[in-house]
Amino acid sequence: MGLAGGVAAAAAAVALDAERAYAQAAEESLLRTVLDRGHLIVGTGSTNAPWHFEDEKGNLTGMDIAMARILAKGLFDDDTKIEFVRQDPAARIPNIATGKVDITIQFMTVTPQRAQQVAFTRPYYIEGIALLTKPGSPTEKFEALEKGGSNTKVSILQNVDAEQSVHAVLPQAQVLQIDTQANVIQALEAGRVDAAAVDLSTVWWLTKRQPDKYADSGKRWYSMLYSAAVRRGDPDWLEFVNTTWDVAMFGHQNAIFDQAIQDFFGLKPPVREPGLPPF
Asked: pLDDT tens digits, residue range 198-220?
């Protein structure tokens, strides 16, 4: 299809308005309900930057919020037509099951156990563990931490896998398990440790905001998929969400996604090369 054909196709796509989309959705699909209602209901959090948090005006922002805006833009050509339900992480699955929300977008890790209760969308991020360090310190980079052997000290949030997680990449390091994420980072600030093992997204967020205070060691490991959750048994709704996010992440309607990864991760937008898809 040439340029003229592409323009014609785009015009035809615009002509597919909400009424026709409603008619094409299965009668029992949530897609019909959302289009008829006129706004999207999203379950999310409000206290975990860079995923979901309040800006200086008290409005929700973050990467999860951007993914919701992409869906509203695809549904109504208006990324503000969203009702956010602020929920605890423990309510992510129950609120889907009871129909309180249309979709949960709340840095939710995909597991087979959870997939028995909800349907997961295509992943929109791969989380991992990374090492936060101090800029300009002798142990700023991973190679120096590795060379330190048993003298290297790493803080991490206390859990049953904490020591094993650190020793997977620094087998001789001393591991300090600490009660809260804030205190894990404070141990680095106070000089009690050489590095803090935290989420990769946290490393990106902090180094973007305070590059004079925090650095990225360059090491990341232990990948975890983040997806949104919808109710099971509704393929039309799931397919809509997946298609909309595919277009935003890999296609041409990428303005919201690209701005979000710059704002919250400090990353350059990905280059989307025309031609064959990557394999």
From this structure: 999 999 999 999 999 999 999 99
